[in-house]
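Quick one: C-alpha cells for this chain, please?
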Amino acid sequence: GKEDLMFAPEISGNWNEHFATQRYRHMLTWLKVCVCTTTTDTGSYWGKLNKITLKDVPNSLTVDLSKVESNAFALKSAVTFSAEKTDRVILDNSEGVDLSIVAQEVASVFCDPRDNTTPDNPYILVIECENGKTKEVPITLGGFDGLNPELLKYPAGLQYLLVLYFHPYDVVDGICTLNTWNAQNEDLYPSGS
C-alpha cells in the first residue's frame, strides 16, 4: 500500500562501451484519493470521514526476473499477484476528516494494476463516517484520448487522482482522472500532456 515497486532491466558496459541509461518502470498503480461534498450542507449529513478501506487486494506478489523487459507492456507476464486477498485500510482517522465542498487529498495507495477496459473488475472502496454511515463505492479507472488503450488493460506505472463526491442521502460516487506520474513514464503518454 505505501511502497512502490520498480524494476529496471539489466544493463552492461565497460570502460570502452558506456553504460546505457538505466530506466526504471513502476510495477504498481498509484491511487491518490481526494474527498469533497457536492453541496455546502452535505458534510453535516455524513459527519466526518473516519476510514477508507480498499477491499480485496492481493496479499503479495512475485516477480519473475527472467521475464522482466524494458517494454512497459511486458510487465504483466513478469508479475504474479497472489490469489489470497486482504482488505487494506488506506485512511484511518479517529478524529475524522471534515468534509467540505473544497476537495482535499486524504489518502494515497499503491495497488495491483487491474484491467480497466471493462467495469467487471473495479476497485472497491469502503467509506466509513462518524454518523455511522458506511458505503461501498466501486471505482473503475479510465484513460484519456491518445493513450494507448492496451495500457489500460494493465495500468502499471499509472497514477490516478480519485475524487470521491459525497452527496446527500447515502450517495457517494467517484471520478478518476489519469495524472502524469513523472518524467520516467513520459513515453507512456501522448506528447503535450
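DSSP finds two helices and twelve strands in the chain.
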